[in-house]
Give the backbone structure.
Amino acid sequence: MIITKKKEPADIVESLKGYKSVYLFGCNTCAEQCKTGGIEEINEMTATLTENGHEVTGYSLVDETCYEQLARREVRKVPAIKESDAVLVLACGAGVKTVADSVEESTPVLPALDSLYLASVERVGRFFEGCSLCGECVLTETAGICPHTECPKDMLNGPCGGVSDGKCEVLVENECAWTRIHSRLKAQGRLSQMTKFRPLKDNSIKLNPRQTLLRGPGSVAQKSR
């Protein structure tokens, strides 16, 4: 799940200066669960924009705003999108890009949210960053705990010298990621993984922007776009 937070209303109003009519695009998946882009937030945004002199021409709440086919289908069937001065998207950055690619090039598409991170979901309303999307997964060797994500120092070969009573030196309330990795590997009888040296990350894997092409079950081809 992509975690997002709301931009300040004043910043959104400022970004819409000069645009009278505005169409809203929400997301009924990630943003809805984050309470940043569901129906309640669309209603709140409608009230905010109306109070500031804008005309909200309508809204769309698709299941996945980042899914281009869904966005394009919505644009085709809703004339108000084309007729509006601007479109405001209550979704992650990928959703904003998808909507911007789906409407006419002359239509401004603006974000209402800031994208934060890719999360694991503990329960509704409680999320933790679970993956840094590094492109070179080491979870096989670290018992499902990502040192890139959970260690503030990005330590790849064990804990730093600042660990105290199993706690992180940087985020002192957090248990050290490598303490947790050691404990889990020991419970699994796989402590030999702790002796494996991990070289520096190959950051060329993360050259942006990336594009992944599915080629049958279990097969992907990734390239820079």
Summary: The radius of gyration is 22 Å.
